[in-house]
Amino acid sequence: SSAASDVYKRQADLIPHSQIKGIDICQDALDLALENKTSLGISNVEFVKGDVFDGNILDGTKFDLITANPPYVTEESYYSKDTEESVRIYEPKLALIGDTEFYTALIENVVKPSGADGFIFELAEENQVQTTKNLLNSNWKVTTFTDSNGKLRCVFGYKVGSQMQILGNLKSLG
After folding, report:
1. Helix or strand or coil: residue 145?
2. 1 pLDDT exceeds 50?
């Protein structure tokens, strides 16, 4: 999506010597990301097709920071008045409907095997936060970020004492 490309562009600009890998299960999303990468002139981002439920998704690759926008709208919420009709019309269900299973897969199949020192995941429900926290040991500091309306938006975490401890500053931005 263009929003995801903007995030990659900002990351690439802020840390110009970094290597960024975008992974998605949807080929259409990857095609759009590649198109946006080209139009924005980004050179240090790679996009690959992958499934977060695949225990070998990273194939041994190591990362410092994991960011993800997994499907976080519960099926019940998707069909309720909590979800705007335009979202149901224009956004693919594959990108929206999900719950704690995605956070479990992200921690077990991505964060832990990658050796990452930090992560930021979009979410919507407190149980998604608790699932994430419960999968990590006491070496991790895990907290949340809310928007200006007080709505839960992200769970983020970092290994205590690591360079990613800077993520603790996100709390002060809310």
Report:
1. strand
2. no
CA distance 23 to 53: 12
Lowest-confidence segment of 67-71, 79-83, 159-163 by average pLDDT: 79-83
What's the gap between Cα 116 and its chain centre? 13
Q: How far is CA 77 from the centre of its chain?
A: 20
- Give the residue among 107, 103, 124, 125 at the shortest CA–CA distance from 116: 107
Structure tokens at 174: 């809310």
Residue 111, classified by CB atoms within 10 Å of its CB into exposed (0-12), middle (13-18) or buried (19+), is buried
Q: pLDDT tens digits for 140-149?
A: 999 998 888 8
Say how far apart CA 33 and CA 40 lie, in whole Å: 10
Segment 73-100, tens digit of pLDDT: 888 888 888 888 888 888 888 889 999 9
**Which run of H or of E encompasses 45?**
strand 45-49
Q: Which long-range contacts (CB under 8 A, 24 or more apart) does 11-14 make?
A: 11/67, 12/42, 12/43, 12/44, 12/45
